[in-house]
Amino acid sequence: MEKDILYREGNFHIRRYSGIPEDALTFLDRIAWGNEGAVYEHKNTEEHIRQLHRPSLIAIYEGEEIRGTAAFCNTPVGANGREFNCFYIRYFASSPAIRGKGVMKNFSIKVMELIREREAAKTVYFACIERDNRGSYRVVESAGYTNIGTIKTMGFSRFFPRLSPRVDTLGSVAERETVLNLLRKHYRGHALVQFNALFLNDDYYVIREGDEIVAGCQYHRVHWVVNRMKGMMGKVIMNVVPLVPLLNQLFNPRRFEFLAFEGIYCKPGYEDRLQELFESLLAQEGLKSSMFWMGETCPHRIAIERYGNPGLIHTFIKDSDVYILAAFQNMDESEIQLVKDSPLYASAFDYI
Q1: Domain tally, the chain
Q2: pLDDT at residue 46 in the model
Q3: 265 by DSSP, 3-state: which?
Q4: Which of 1, 67, 180, 204 is the most exposed place for a label (fewest CB within 10 A)?
């Protein structure tokens, strides 16, 4: 795998890989995510990493040991009808061996500088930082990133989900293009719009009225282990819910399996069909709970929330906001403001 040494300082150096090397997969598989709030482990890390869109890994090494990582995924993104080059950051992680020593902060600043210096195109860089992860927030902010908006975590669950005969897959390439056109129009006024994770494993499903698609979404099946949740309510959820029959089918911290929805489309007035779609996909996969992420000011999120009846899991996770921190290269103030002023689009694949 192609690699470059970008920087050296003392016993540390920074490498850039085109792709994700095997030692980074091993490192990331051991990481517990989160900090001051919820702490959890991803149990399908390798599968997801292999599906990242055009990733480059930046790794901080002490000698030959990885101490920190950031994967920069390169893609065009839409922003209120405009298109910009973009690098979004995944797997921003540090080893316990360097936490609290200032190493990650100092080298992250250098990494962000080196990445931006190499780019000639108009480019947006952004990272998703959980609201309670103050350490990562401070590190990314110190590297020149600013908060441009909040992504809300939404939950949907059913104790006894039912299959719907109206739910169907897409039957052709032409139908996929129809869905993409619907989504481009649906999220035209948003920023950071990209659909790279759609149609993975042929898992985009729709409901039609006649020949018209009125609701649709992609799902990803996810497995987490949750080690901690914040606050007194978090302690109750962690310690009591797993002991209560039925409730422990919605949320079991030792094996939390759920569906993550994205590319969500709903024709106005058909919110009931969207919930029917979500419920049927849960039944199809033998699960009770799902999550999805949408911008705080996204009008589609507001419409879905207004419709109501998300299920009990939403109560458990509704305060798990995510901040979007962004930096800009070669963009003028009007272009930057365009991104900042637009509702944000979120791909669930970036959060699982």
Answers
A1: 2
A2: 82
A3: strand
A4: 1
Inter-axis angle of helices 134-142 and 103-117, nearest 10: 40
Sign, CA torsion 19/130/150/233: positive
- The SS3 assignment for 110 reads helix
* Global confidence as pTM: 0.91
Helices (H), 164-285: 173-186, 231-239, 247-250, 271-285
pLDDT in tens, 305-344: 998 889 999 988 888 899 999 999 999 999 999 999 999 9
For residues 130 and 200, membership in a common domain is answered with no
Q: What is the pLDDT of residue 216?
A: 98
- Assign residue 76 the CATH number of its domain: 3.40.630.30
Same domain, 140 and 279: no
From CA 40, how far away is CA 153, in angstroms rounded? 15
Same domain membership, residue 234 and residue 212? yes
- Residue 83 CA neighbour count, 13 Å, CB half: 4
Judge residue 351's burial from the number of C-beta atoms within 10 Å of its C-beta, 0-12 exposed, 13-18 middle, 19 or more buried: buried
Tokens, residue 12: 């540390």
Instruction: Count CA within 13 A, CB hemisphere, residue 122.
Output: 13
Q: Are residues 222 and 293 in the same domain?
A: yes
Q: Is there a contact between 162 and 279 (Cβ–Cβ < 8 Å)?
A: yes
Residues of the domain holding 234: 154-317
* Average pLDDT of the segment spanning 158-180: 96
DSSP state at residue 349: G
CA 343 to the chain's CA centroid:
16
User: Six-digit token pair at 228?
Assistant: 């901690």
Which is it for strands 123-130 and 82-94: parallel, antiparallel or unpaired? parallel
| Angstrom distances, CA of residue 79 to CA of 25, 82, 84, 263 | 32, 5, 7, 16
Q: Which residue has the higher pLDDT, 310 or 171?
A: 310
Residues 61 and 178 occupy one common structural domain: no
Token pair listed for 128: 């998703």
Say yes or no: 89 and 66 in one domain: yes
Q: How many CA atoms lie within 13 A of 51 on its CB side?
A: 15
